[in-house]
């Protein structure tokens, strides 16, 4: 595997685990970290031997935001010419299911990265926030859009305008995270969920992700039609034949991801 300086990359069976590893900066997301994370997960996306990915940080911080020190002295034309952080768009185009395992701070770009994943499993010590307003800016990696879709206008406005952090329980109540688990178990729980996903047919899981994401991009009628057409198309797959045969024969399916 490629040498990475800011992340740790492991493969556990059919599950990929990427750990942000800049503890000295609470995993602040500088350009190098973005490039390495996107490269690592893109490789997993293309690897037929990986069926799901977990992205995590450390116990204290999933990620405390974009790297403020790297950004602070940039001018408008630096930001624009470099199309600062455009690479995150590649992350959102990944087809493989990606789970965020969040312990500690997920702030600013850290919260936005967690929301770019397909779902979030949070440790009970997790703290989510979009405190950019305290820095004289606003969320720049999709936070004003994805947070609003996740928790609704009232709470998104509250968080983005005041910079208030919310804890794991409030995040679960608001629909930002799918599960809250004891902080020390968050990576293991996310890996277990990823193993379940990776045991399914990879192309079907990727299409299911695409269908759910379509709910955010289309109206209801088009979304339902999109889903039905994908459903129809799966009857051309070997995994549909295997899955339905296994049900009738009262055995576990053995998907070959085709
Ligand atoms: N960037 C750079 N360094 C950071 C960051 C960060 N976001 N967060 C923490 N660090 C560093 C600190 O500077 C410190 O380093 P040093 O020891 O060298 O001074 C080290 O990490 C430890 O941090 P603290 O000493 O501050 O630890 P505390 O436990 O006291 O506090 C907090 C933890 C509350 C998380 C605090 O560090 C904090 O408030 N961090 C900043 C949070 C923040 O404002 N995040 C938003 C950043 S802006 C952003 O994400 C915009 C994204 C969109 C960009 C899109 C561009 C197109």
Automatic annotation (TrEMBL):
Belongs to the enoyl-CoA hydratase/isomerase family. One of its GO terms (biological process) is fatty acid beta-oxidation. The keyword Membrane does not apply. It catalyses: a (3S)-3-hydroxyacyl-CoA = a (2E)-enoyl-CoA + H2O; a 4-saturated-(3S)-3-hydroxyacyl-CoA = a (3E)-enoyl-CoA + H2O. It comes from Pseudarthrobacter psychrotolerans. PANTHER family: ENOYL-COA HYDRATASE, MITOCHONDRIAL, ENOYL-COA HYDRATASE-RELATED. GO terms for molecular function: enoyl-CoA hydratase activity. Could possibly oxidize fatty acids using specific components. Its EC number is 4.2.1.17. NCBIfam families: PRK05862.1. Signal peptide: none annotated. This is Probable enoyl-CoA hydratase echA8. Keywords: Fatty acid metabolism, Lipid metabolism, Lyase. SUPFAM superfamilies: ClpP/crotonase (SSF52096). InterPro entries: ClpP/crotonase-like_dom_sf, Enoyl-CoA_hyd/isom_CS, Enoyl-CoA_hydra/iso, Enoyl-CoA_hydra_C. Pfam families: ECH_1.
């Amino acid at each position: 595997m490629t040498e990475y300086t800011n992340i740790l990359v492991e493969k556990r069976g059919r599950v990929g685990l990427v750990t942000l590893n800049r503890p000295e900066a609470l995993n602040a997301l500088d350009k190098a970290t973005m490039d390495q994370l996107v490269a690592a997960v893109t490789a997993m996306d293309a690897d037929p031997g990986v069926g799901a990915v977990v992205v995590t940080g450390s116990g204290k911080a999933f990620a405390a935001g974009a790297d403020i020190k790297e950004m602070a002295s940039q001018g408008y034309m630096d930001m624009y010419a470099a199309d600062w952080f455009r690479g995150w768009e590649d992350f959102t185009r990944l087809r493989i299911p990606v789970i965020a395992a969040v312990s500690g701070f997920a702030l600013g770009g850290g919260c936005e990265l967690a929301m770019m994943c397909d779902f979030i499993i949070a440790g009970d010590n997790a703290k989510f926030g979009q405190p950019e307003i305290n820095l004289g800016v606003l969320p720049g990696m999709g936070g004003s859009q994805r947070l609003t879709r996740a928790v609704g206008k009232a709470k998104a406005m509250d968080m983005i305008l005041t910079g208030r952090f919310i804890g794991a329980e409030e995040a679960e109540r608001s629909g930002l995270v799918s599960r809250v688990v004891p902080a020390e178990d968050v990576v293991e729980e996310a890996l277990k969920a990823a193993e379940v996903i990776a045991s399914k047919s990879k192309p079907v899981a990727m299409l299911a992700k695409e269908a759910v994401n379509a709910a955010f991009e289309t109206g209801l009628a088009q979304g339902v039609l999109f889903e039905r057409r994908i459903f129809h198309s799966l009857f051309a797959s070997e995994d549909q034949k295997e899955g339905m045969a296994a049900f009738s024969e009262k055995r576990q399916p053995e998907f070959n991801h085709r």
